[in-house]
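Thought: the user wants the 3D structure for the chain below. I'll pass the sequence to the structure tool as-is, report back what it returns, then summarize two notable features.
Action: structure_tool
Action Input:
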Amino acid sequence: MAFISKALFFLAIIYISSLSAFAENEDPGLVMNYYKDSCPQAEDIIKEQVRLLYKRHKNTAFSWLRNIFHDCFVESCDASLLLDSTRRVLSEKETDRSFGMRNFRYLETIKEALERECPGVVSCADILVLSARDGIASVGGPYIPLKTGRRDGRKSRADILEQYLPDHNESMSVVLERFAAIGIDTPGVVALLGSHSVGRTHCVKLVHRLYPEVDPALNPDHVEHMLYKCPDAIPDPKAVQYVRNDRGTPMKLDNNYYRNILDNKGLLIVDHQLATDKRTKPFVKKMAKSQDYFFSEFARAITTLSENNPLTGTKGEIRKQCNLANKLH
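Observation:
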């Protein structure tokens, strides 16, 4: 009996040890406050850096918001957007679809601050997502609690961008289908396009609505301003020629965008379609009336976008620099 008891005790120890080992190796996926033990100050450092950068460069907040869309929409939320081109592979950020995107160097500023505190711990993918969260709050949007634990991809996805990213000139059916593919429903699409309430649109993106003839769908009162800002039918892409997305509150994320597009003051084709398509117009009208409703749907959609197919556990890597995969570092 003593021998059997010892044997059972020994087996129990092995079983418990195996469970512990399994628990240690188990991928927790995305969780709230992932860095609470490995880098407790991580989220505070990102928030402070975003605040300081916004104080010096107001347009950084718009960049952070655009980053999460361009990165997370394309197959995985893994900071592939941030990778530089190599001799063989084009960077996502250097494609035509990334026209006008900037301030990538300031993400390196945030990364450097984190590396000083916790070397090799916080991923660029999480920095990209959390800087978007804090950038949204900087321009008056809702504070959105987001999970962390993403790891960084090792390759650019420039060759498949067109398969994923909806274009501002595409039909509303295509736009809705692209968003639905990553789990974002119609009110979520309407809310995310509310991001057009901040920042500006380069004339390159909208002159086709002004030349050779003015799009009759545009509000005539708004056309005069657009023509003043975009006097050339073929604008220089490198020139500072742009129109504010929202002339009333250009630096504030709010529901004024929806009132503008209902008044035919949307700059892009997708803005106009959003206000006229029978599938989206009811939500546009609802968000025009209620900023709380806009913010709640916006927060829900950003959360879904931020959790699109992340690399977690042992997948991917934690980059030393956000613009380079570690093998190239």
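Final Answer: Structure generated. The beta strands are 200-202, 242-244. The chain has 13 helices and two strands.
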